[in-house]
Amino acid sequence: MAKTVAVVLESSEVDPHRLSEGLRMSVGLVLGKHDVYVLLFDKAVLASLKEKPVFFEKYEMAKHINALIMLKRKVWVNRHSLSDLHPEAEKLKGVELKKQSEMLDVIASADVVIRYEVDAK
């Protein structure tokens, strides 16, 4: 039975490897025919940018995000987080900018919520 799954990726100090793994894991959830929402908060929003910081270069975040979008899943970025970090930045095609309240509504209504820890250790 398919479920609505909210994957929450948030971080105050991003470990790009862990962030990429969280996105890859989200693609894997699609195999279960689940309705997957990937929600990016705080510095995790950097994964959604067309031009990423230099230390993100060797990770395939865009590949995972593009796969989710191609498979008709949602990748949402917290509007407030993005405007704090990069107000003029261009997002990857298909990534949606959302208010925090809209993202919290998805979390509240999801059958399953997975908070993937992406902080640098």
Automatic annotation (TrEMBL):
Q: Which InterPro entries does its entry note?
A: DsrEFH-like
Lineage top rank: taxon: Bacteria
The family database entries (Gene3D superfamilies) matched by this protein are listed as: DsrEFH-like (3.40.1260.10)
Would you tell me the protein name for this molecule?
A: Sulfur relay (Sulfurtransferase) DsrF/TusC family protein
Organism expressing this protein natively: Rossellomorea pakistanensis
Organism lineage: Bacteria, Bacillati, Bacillota, Bacilli, Bacillales
